[in-house]
Amino acid sequence: MELKIKISVIVTDKDHGVLLLKEKTEKHDRPLWNIVKGTFGDHDNENIFEAAIRECKEEAGVEVKLEKTTGCYVIQKDGDFKLQFNFIGKITQGSPQIAEAKEQASRNEDISDIRWFTPDEIRKIDSKEFISKKIFLMVQDWLNNKTYPLDIVHYLE
Q1: What SUPFAM superfamilies does its record include (predicted)?
Q2: How far from 110 is each of 29, 129, 147, CA to CA, in Å?
Q3: Which of 8, 44, 93, 144 would staple 63 via disulfide (CB 3.0–4.6 Å)?
Q4: pTM for the full model?
């Protein structure tokens, strides 16, 4: 069994909109809506909070303050086991922008669009327009205010 730890961030603005990225992956034949996300453990000794903040900078060009979490999502399939910690972050610095193609390629990303969605706009997006059921569920949890304080995650050193 292989264990992977993933992190993701629902980036919000002061008007309670959500930043979504249009991303193409090998699993899909077209770009679909996604949130900021990445793999934990591929950057030295950073913790999951630092990894989430780094991913926001890399994928959306923004600094964020993590404020809450929608929890940890567990995926077990075909002998693989994934834990995905999903955070909610507010922008503290920068304006959302797509990284240059060369930089994206170095991280195996293919993001073609980035934009804000109001809660009403998100509710109108069909679940099939999201990159995965898991990402759709995370966004729905945020929409339904199924959030928890960050101190629910106990980080022991």
Answers
A1: Nudix
A2: 12, 16, 29
A3: 93
A4: 0.93
